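Hi R.,

As promised, here are both runs. First protein below:
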Amino acid sequence: MDQRPAEKAAPVKRARNSEKTKAAILVAGRAEFAERGFEGARVDAIAALAGANKRLLYHYFGNKEDLYRAVLLDAYQEIRRGERALSLDQYGPVDAMDRLVRFTFRHFLANPWFPRLLNTENLENARFLKTLPDILALHSPLVGQITTIVERGAELGIFRRDVDPVQLYISIAALGFFYVSNMATLSVIFARDLSGIDMVQEREAQAVQMVLDYLRTKPA
């Protein structure tokens, strides 16, 4: 009989899932920067919230400024991906605009950290956003998409032609952004719970109606 001791199995090394770790750090960064602003945010807190080693965080993203830029870019990329997923070209102009307005409103509502993050960047006078080389290219398809929807509506005689797509999108975003970012104060001022489902649905429907009414109004 073989009396040699059984060989011990080599310890299994856990593969590092870098993409999963990076995603967790970005999510944690959203929360920390949105809650405390750029100056008040702490890398230690972000690493702890992400369940990641701080040295690993620096390895993936560099310093605090680089991490903030990554969080900011990721936030814009996320909303742009959502807009592309709407596949608005397959809908008529009214339905397409309806869907875009509702998506934008719901995105702000479902991600209250996003308006807070944008407020932080505005307090910084967009100094980090200005350094992102991809930011203009990221938004160009959105402007083109809105232009196409308006042109299709104008060709059918249901939308006005004198529409600036950038101004229109600013109005669409504002209808959701202001509601979400000022929900707490407006709820107190008007003694209504603006987070209630009835109020949210009413506001969303009004946002859609306001945009469509503007597009259907003939210029003076």
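And here is the second one, sequence first, then its structure tokens:
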Amino acid sequence: MASPFKIRMRTASLLRRIFSRRFLKFGTVGASGTIVNIGVLYLAQEFLFDTVQTTEIRLNLSLALAIFLATLNNFFWNRLWTWADRKQYHHLSLPAQFGQYSLACSLSIILQIVFTNLLAPHFYYQIANLIAIGVTSVLNFLLNDIWTFGRTKLLSASKQDTQD
């Protein structure tokens, strides 16, 4: 069992990571993704899939398209800006890294769909989606910071550098 000191140190490290400049960049990219998400969700819900009679199916089709395009937008901006300093640790091809990014985001995406569907009967669907995006953002950042954009690789490399 971890000592109270170790628990406090881990908590402080996690909070520093969450409230870092990188997280602010991630939030800015996320805001652009939110605009893409909400715009595509509206266009798909009101126009593209307006002939789908079942409300739930129409909402889920619209959500799938909106989330995919927002994820694509966020991947490219996060790669170019948020984690630009970690390019030397990206040994994967662009499609492979997008796959890794998408996999890391999948938990957040699933939770976003679940929360949007749970909240949509009580709120306007776009408000429900915004709430869901806000709730899942921190988890999404941590998964991508640690795995997709190489924090684990960065820490391993720095440990190896100090051992040499």
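A quick note on the second one: The first helix runs from residue 4 to 18. Let me know what you think.

Best,
J.
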